[in-house]
Specification:
Elements (H helix, E strand, L loop, with lengths): L1 E4 L6 H13 L4 E2 L7 H10 L18 E5 L20 E6 L11 E4 L5 H11 L6 H15 L9 H12 L4 H8 L5 H12 L4 E3 L2 E9 L7 H12 L3 E8 L4 E8 L6 H6 L4 E2 L3 E7 L3 H13 L8 H4 L13 H11 L3 E6 L2 E7 L33 H11 L3 E6 L2 E7 H10 L4
Parallel strand pairs: 1-2, 1-3, 3-4, 4-5, 7-8
Antiparallel strand pairs: 6-7, 8-9, 9-11, 10-11, 12-13, 14-15
Helix pairs in contact: 1-3, 1-4, 3-4, 4-5, 4-6, 7-8, 10-14, 13-14
């Protein structure tokens, strides 16, 4: 059994890529995730007699021998098919345009930086002389226009424009595209935009004008990306970020929009565990502090160091530590002398806690400075192994709102990695 699939929260570029793949691989079964972009859902409700797709639950995973993945290069963004990640004997064919290194190892790759993934597939359709119906051409053009911002995003390539011209030659209908690509902007979106503008602020980071806005949400709201895009345009900044926290579900939705090449939004969102394009990206984070997310975004933009592959290449060592019987007064002195914000607490060679500057806020009187560190230290210490990646470290720091991670191997602390260390890695991924 051969399957075609794409990322969750499917947009028009992903949908068009699945349809194009169905024409390139006619024996394959196209499968769409459960979560779809609202405009895509509306399009499919009208065209369900023309385009038919299976749902992930309808597929017997054990029967799959070939998997065609389009418009995504990350297992975690697939609906149900991520379970095949470590399964041997499955042929993987990958079509992706993001230009970012992912974790899907494929047998056949069609990976190339492009404004839209659909453009890569139109190239192959054209080379194979596969005929397109007007509705197919219209859907493919919608995919290109959506991901390139009508060919106005900085990520747009000349070939995107050539592909658009080819689809217009095949009678793609611009009026249909205009009706479905028109963003949904109603009362909810207007109220959110108004709240964002009331608390709007600008900052300069590495010479760029950036606005980061945090807002609590109540209930589900569609088209937040439209709100962030409008917010960026109104604020007239190089990049804008919306951090939308949903306390009931315990998650943060992060959406970013960039208007210049220097701030690659896809790479920034990759650092938060999400993804996207140079001009647009998003990430979903669970159980995180919005303030910590903001700090991560700032650090991702500010970072400036050599790239690395493993934690062991980035960590600082040997590690300066203190014993649990050290007084808080001595600990404060060491923190000042070392110029750091936290220290691991080690007893008999084992990590037993972490003391940081924020722990000193627990002290209510000067006399308590004589108390031992073990009375105030954090004992639930988040650690990481030396073979893990900087991205995994960054995700842990965001999730647990910590600025440093002890690196532990065989129950021994062999190093420490900080938030700024991980940012050095991500910044190096930015294109020259």
């Amino acid at each position: 059994m051969q399957i075609i699939t794409t990322h969750k929260n499917t947009d028009f570029d992903a949908l068009a890529s699945v349809v194009a793949a169905s024409m390139l691989y006619p024996e394959a079964t196209p499968v769409l995730p459960k979560t779809l972009n609202p405009n895509v859902k509306q399009f499919l409700s009208i065209h369900k007699d023309i385009f038919t797709f299976s749902e992930p639950e309808e597929i017997d995973l054990e029967r799959i021998r070939s998997l065609i993945i389009v418009d995504v290069n990350c297992w975690s963004r697939l609906d149900r098919f991520h379970k095949l990640k470590d399964q041997s004997g499955i042929e993987i064919l990958l079509w992706d345009h993001h230009g970012l290194e992912g974790d899907i190892s494929s047998n056949v790759q069609h990976v190339e930086p492009m404004g839209a993934n659909t453009t890569l597939m139109v190239r192959e359709l054209k080379n194979r002389h596969i005929q397109l119906s007007p509705i197919q051409a219209t859907l493919l053009l919608a995919g290109i226009y959506e991901d390139t911002g009508n060919l106005m995003f900085p990520s747009s390539k000349a070939e995107d424009a050539f592909a658009a011209g080819y689809l217009l030659e095949n009678r793609a209908d611009l009026s249909v595209i205009g009706s479905f690509l028109r963003p949904a902007y109603g009362e909810k979106q207007k109220n959110i935009l108004f709240e964002m503008l009331k608390n709007a602020d600008r900052m300069r980071i590495n010479g760029y004008s950036v606005s980061i806005n945090k807002l609590k949400l109540e209930g589900h709201v569609d088209s937040l990306a439209v709100v962030v895009r409008m917010y960026r345009e109104i604020m007239n900044v190089d990049a804008a970020f919306g951090i939308f926290s949903d306390e009931e579900k315990g998650r943060c939705i992060v959406i970013g929009r960039s208007a210049i090449d220097g701030l690659n939004m896809g790479l920034i969102m990759k650092g938060l565990g999400g993804g996207g394009h140079p001009g647009a990206g998003s990430a979903m984070l669970k159980s995180v502090n919005p303030d910590a997310v903001e700090m991560m975004i700032v650090d991702l933009i500010q970072g400036n160091q050599q790239a690395s592959v493993q934690i062991s290449d980035l960590m600082s060592f040997p590690v300066f530590s203190i014993s649990p019987n050290t007084t808080m007064e001595e600990a404060a002195k060491i923190l000042r002398e070392k110029g750091c914000t936290g220290l691991p607490v080690i007893e008999n060679g084992r990590l037993v806690g972490m003391i940081s500057r924020r722990d000193f806020k627990k002290i209510k009187s000067a006399g308590r400075l004589k108390a031992p560190v073990k009375a105030y230290m954090s004992t639930n210490v988040v650690t990481i192994e030396p073979g893990k990646s900087p991205m995994q470290a960054a995700r842990l720091m965001v999730k647990y709102d910590v600025g440093r991670l002890p690196v532990v191997e065989n129950d021994r602390v062999i190093g420490i990695i900080t938030r700024s260390d991980t940012m050095m890695y991500f910044y190096d991924l930015l294109p020259d």
